[in-house]
Protein 1
Amino acid sequence: MAVPKRKVSPSRRNMRRSHHALGANSFVEDKDSGELRRPHHVDLKTGLYNGKQILTPKED
């Protein structure tokens, strides 16, 4: 059975985890409505995705 020979120091453990942080969500401006939306996601206000009507638009 494989067993670590030495204890992993807190410094080395934290250096390994330095890339695990979550980044901020990115948003793009919609070409038609000018609203901000996530890339590669359906615009919930208009129901469009890639220029095609996917969902019925929400009523305000």
Protein 2
Amino acid sequence: MRTMAGRLGSVGVALALACALGACAAQQAREMNSMLAAAGFQVRPANTPEKLKQLESLKPHALLQTQRDGAPYWVVADPTVCQCLYVGNEAAYQRYEQLKLRKEYADEQLMAAEMNEDAAMNWSMWGPWGPWGY
């Protein structure tokens, strides 16, 4: 039978994990917003109740293609960080895709460098590990 302290500890861990995941999602949204702005997307604030309602009806942080006056446009709803809509034309979308690819490549390079650094570490100098060495 679990004690009250054990249950509270589990709740605390769950809350900490939820907060960490929320912070991660917010960080990813901020990174996406930065890349959208750098690519030339325009920010349209949801500054009326009608705009806010429509913004909240869209899938958050997803690129959606739409047509306006016969031309393709890309929109991204951000109801969490800026409460705005990012709007870009085809050229802005292509620049965003290039920035996204560059970021993915840079992230892969960083991960590979960190793995190589870890592999090069001399962990044996710290003595034996495992149940016998703790």
